[in-house]
Amino acid sequence: MKDKLKIKLSIADRVYPLTIDPDREEGLRKAAKKIDGLIKQFEQNYAVRDKQDVLAMCALQFASQVEQESIEKDSENTFVEDHLEKLNHLLQEKISSYK
Predict the structure, then answer these.
(1) How far is CA 84 from CA 71, 78, 91, in A?
(2) Phi and psi at residue 49, to the nearest 5°
(3) Distance between CA 97 and CA 87 in Å, rounded?
(4) 73-82: long-range contacts (C-beta < 8 A, 24 or more apart)?
(5) SS3 23
(6) Which residues pair with 17 in a beta bridge?
(7) What DSSP designation does 24 have?
(8) Containing domain of residue 79, as a range?
(9) Are residues 23 and 43 in contact, defined by beta-carbon separation less than 8 angstroms?
(10) How many domains does the chain have?
(11) 11 Cβ contact partners less than 8 Å away, ≥ 6 residues apart
(12) Alpha carbon separation from 88 to 75, 83, 84, 92, 97 (Å, rounded)
């Protein structure tokens, strides 16, 4: 079992102590930094003062990005699958013509 690492992350002016696997530290720190940057952006652009509202907007932003990437990936997979099926069909035709 890996040794756990104790870190403190600051998000929206609050400190969150976490015990994590060391290989997750960089990702968590980057995520916390991204969240804080987005919070500042929302506060400046929309004059939102309530941290809960800003955090909800951040959560929606990140969740929508994940969902959009999933939709795009599914679309790309469908495109690739269609082309592979066409290629397979062409190969099957060529193979059967040699029999």
Answers:
(1) 20, 10, 10
(2) -105, -30
(3) 15
(4) none
(5) helix
(6) 8
(7) G
(8) 5-97
(9) no
(10) 1
(11) 32, 35, 36
(12) 20, 8, 6, 6, 14
The two structure tokens encoding residue 86: 């066409």
Give CA–CA dist 62/67, Å, rounded: 9
Written as tens digits, the pLDDT of the chain (99 aa) is 569 999 999 999 999 999 999 999 999 999 999 999 999 999 889 888 788 999 999 999 999 999 999 898 888 888 888 889 999 988 888 888 886
Helix (H, G, I), strand (E, B) or coil at 13: coil
Question: Chain centroid to CA 55: how far?
Answer: 17
Helices (DSSP H) in the chain: which residue ranges?
25-46, 51-97
Look-up of token digits 């916390």:
32
